[in-house]
Write a structure and sequence with these properties.
Layout: E1 2-8, E2 15-20, E3 29-38, H1 40-46, E4 58-59, E5 63-71, E6 81-85, E7 100-103, E8 109-110, H2 117-139, E9 149-151, H3 157-168, E10 173-177, H4 183-189, E11 193-196, H5 198-201, E12 212-217, H6 221-229, E13 231-239, H7 253-257, E14 261-264, H8 272-285, H9 288-294, E15 295-299, H10 303-311, E16 318-322
Parallel strand pairs: 9-10, 9-12, 10-11, 12-13, 13-14, 15-16
Antiparallel strand pairs: 1-2, 1-4, 3-5, 3-7, 3-16, 5-6, 6-8
Helix pairs in contact: 1-10, 2-3, 2-8
Amino acid sequence: MSYQALLLSNTPEFSVRVAELDELPEGDVELRVDYSTLNYKDALAIRNKSPIVRTWPMIAGIDAAGVVEHSTHPGFQPGDAVVLNGWGLGETRWGGLARKTRAPGEWLVKLPPPLTSRDAAAVGTAGYTAAMCVQALERHGITPGDGPILVTGATGGVGSIAVALLARAGFDVVAVTGKAADHAYLKTLGASSVLDRGELAAPGKPLQKERYAGVVDVLGGQALANACAQVKRNGAVAACGLAMGMDFPTSVAPFILRGVTLYGIDSVYASQTRRQVAWSRLAANLDGALLGGIAREISLEETIPAAEAMLAGKVVGRYLVDVNR
């Protein structure tokens, strides 16, 4: 039996092709995939702009949401709605931009109601990572009364959902973007104010004026260094991305003179328990209507031009991929 998939080979041209079921990765749960997503990492892999893919050929897609069709795992039965994120999908293991996949049950999370497969894909790794960032700040003890939260890369998938979750929790959110035309979008998500990304791009002092109780950062590089320098005493930063680079040009000053804590958020290999907690938070606190405004639906065939647009910085929100279109 065959199925459609976005199969990448180590050549300049990629396309949707038919794959065979005997090519599915190993695992004790087989899924019918309803929706996947297009993330920045997927776009890099699809256009072969960075060494994301470690094994060729590769089916792209770090997210998959759908229904269990076959299972020998005691925790899952046919008909269960599940979501699969991370674990090397699209890098070392065939990913979710396909109509079928297979995975170990320990990697899957049952969808908490009222989330549907479409909702779960619209949230995807980006939104689930955002939830983990917000939870890290809350576990640190930060409350809305402590001051505003800075969210960098706010028009992207992680940033958009982080803004929405924080605003829903009562925080004053300062959203950072380099896209002047998208300020209204960020205000719709709940941002109280918008900061131009250029204000964080230039080198600055290791200790600057204390402005923020916490930060959700997806940029890394100089932006992360400046963000840390502006965090209030005993505040915290949840860092989960490197869109501006992997370097970190700062000193230990914010950490030892102001007691700032830097949390690294690893959503790729997080335990099933941590995943379930994050997804429960999303189910309880993410407004469905707002989520609909974040996600833009495309077909499997459209992922290639969409990847180009994403790498060119022309995308706001999330790409939701209906793999059966």
